[in-house]
Write a structure and sequence with these properties.
The protein has 11 helices and no strands. By secondary structure, it is an all-alpha fold.
Amino acid sequence: LDAADQWGEWLLLLPLLVALEAVLSADNAIALAAISRQLRDPGLQSRALNLGLALALVFRLALIAAARWVLDFWPLQLLAAAYLLWLAGTSLLPLLRAEADEASDVAAASQPIGAAPADKAEAAGDADHPSAVDGLHNRGLGAVVATLAFTDLAFSLDSVAAAVAVSDNLLIVMAGGVIGVIALRLTSALFVRWLGEFAHLEAAGYLAVALVGLRLVLRVAAPQLVPPEWALLALVALLFVWGFSKRLPASITGPQPGEINP
C-alpha cells in the first residue's frame, strides 16, 4: 500500500472501506431503526433519521480527523461503552417485560373459563402490555435525533478504529465514512419496516449493541481479552438469525407506523 499511487490507493481501498463500514454498521442500523420507531409518525421517523444521521456524519468526520488522539484516549472509549450498555439495558427491560406480559396473557387465555377469570387476566394484560411498550414511545423529535447521533458516534469508535488500520489516507477514510453513513440511512429504513414484522428483531438489535459496548470495555480494561472482529460479527449474525426467526401475526403487523421511505 505504501508503494501505491494516490489513484491506485483510492481504487483499492475505497471499496474495502465501504464494505467494512457496511458490515460493522449492521448492528448500528438496527439500533438506529429501533430508536427512530420511538416516534409513531412515519414522517417524523424519516425526518429523525435524516437529521440524526446528518449530525452523526459531522461527528464521524470529526472523529476520523482526530482518530489518532481519540483512539488513544481511553476515557472517551469507556464513556461510549457505558452509553451503549445503558442504551441496551434501558431498551431491553421494557421489551422483556412486554414479552412476559404477552406470555402470561396467552397462558391465561388457554385456561378453561371455569378454572380462572381469563377475561380479567386478558384485560389486565392488555393494560400492562401497552404501558411497557409505550414507555419507549414517549420522546420528542429532538431527543430522538440526539440519541441517533450519539449512538452512531459510540458505534463509530469501533468502525473508525478498523478503517484507520486499513489506510492512513485521511481523505479515503472520510470518503468511506460518508458512503457508510448513506448506506446506514438506507438500511435503517429497511430495519424500521422489519421491526414491525419480526417479533425478536428489536431485542436482537439491542443485544448486539450490548456486545459492542462490552467489546469497548474490554479494549480499555483488558486488551488481551478483546475478541477478534470475526468473532463479534459471528455473534451478531447469530443474533440476527434469531431476530428474523419469528414473524408477528398479520393482524399485528398490519399498517405499522415504522413503514417509511428511505
